Amino acid sequence: MIQKILIANRGEIALRIVRACRELGIKTLAVYSEADVQSLHVQLADEAICIGGPRSADSYLRADRIISAAEIADVDAIHPGYGFLSENAKFAEQCESCNIKFIGPKSKSIKMMGDKSVAKDTVKKAGVPIVPGSDGPVESEADAVKIARKIGYPVIIKAVAGGGGRGMRIAHNDVSFAKEYHVACGEAEKAFGNGAVYIEKYIEKPRHIEFQILGDSHGKIIHLGERDCSVQRRHQKLIEESPSPFLNSDLRKKMGKAAIRAAEAAEYENAGTIEFLVDAKGNYYFIEMNTRIQVEHPVTEECTGIDLIKQQIHIANGEKLAFDQGDIKFEKHAIECRINAEDPARNFAPSPGTIGLYYAPGGHGVRVDSHAYSGYTIPSHYDSMIGKLICFGPTRKVALERAYRALSEYLIRGIKTTIPLHKAIMADPVFIEGKATTAYMEDFLGRTATDLFS
What we know:
Blueprint: E1 4-7, H1 11-24, E2 27-33, H2 40-44, E3 47-52, H3 63-73, E4 77-79, H4 89-97, E5 101-102, H5 107-114, H6 116-125, H7 141-151, E6 155-163, E7 166-171, H8 174-192, E8 197-201, E9 207-215, E10 221-233, E11 236-242, H9 249-265, E12 270-278, E13 284-290, H10 297-304, H11 308-316, E14 333-340, E15 342-343, E16 349-350, E17 353-354, E18 358-359, E19 366-370, E20 377-378, E21 385-393, H12 396-409, E22 411-412, H13 419-426, H14 429-432, H15 440-447
Parallel strand pairs: 1-2, 1-4, 2-3, 4-5
Antiparallel strand pairs: 6-7, 6-8, 9-10, 9-12, 10-11, 11-14, 12-13, 14-21, 15-16, 17-20, 18-22, 19-21
Helix pairs in contact: 4-5, 6-9, 7-8, 12-13
């Protein structure tokens, strides 16, 4: 049984894992960079070990140092959180070879679903709809153009090893394709060390809807409903909610079954997410699987009452899921706003620095997951997200009202944040009516005065 866990991450997700472990009576070891010595997870974990300099490449991406810390502290398991090494199959293999439980899927599942072309082929064989596109990576620009013409413009060029919107470009004709193809390959090589790309039909103004999956080591896989992640900027999610205001009960049931088939095809264990694009007619297409816990997992937790981090640990312990699909009840609506240290009025420029005043909202139906506090210095070396505001209630209307109220109370001084942006969105008629697609933010920013963000 797991008695001690190393948390191979930082920020709010590391703190989230510390709290879940404490409730389970499990000891925790925080590993941290020199830039994160002030972080709350370092202060609240049972033990802490510095593993390197401020850059991720010198600390949180150093698998050798993390494994060494695990062996020194004699931990039973490693929880990778999200980002960093969470979807690194080699790291999962290293944990397995060192007899340390990796709290996530088996390395073979990470490999299978981490290569997007392999993932598409895998789920296609399981009868899950996929976006029309190339059969794997394209060999050359000439081959790519032929495929694009066959599919029909517009098309999207995607990095095989991609994520976070990097190595992703849209082309509307042969001329723009030539330029965007080379840009995408260059971005992919720089970001992932792999310049391979594949081509897909570009679905215009779709919904981005994902299903939360849990699978145990005994063959049971269930889903915990969907999250609508359509409000994005440059392919980075800003707001997530569950249930989706777009899906009806029949479409939700079909997509849930498809998500389970996709996870079964990957022989999946632990928590994961099946992501779909859904067009205006309700046609849905698999785009990828995230083989880790998601940033937006609290939305699902508040809708179902199930603690996903604890479930990850139970599954890693070899325990059976304690519930069946029919036991999952969706009795609330939840909305999450990502609070980033960015200045929306300056094209979302990062805003690192020291927080002077920090006051988090509270009250009924409000949850804040954050590692920030008064006097905390936000490093410039990492992702700009410093917290998540999750508001929930019996209906979407109540959740929206609580989100607007909570954002009005959320005070962070000394830096710029996305709080004013989220507050403006919560009052926007298009969002209130549940009509936001992946094109929403471009439209919203185009018609909204920048003084709303000041």
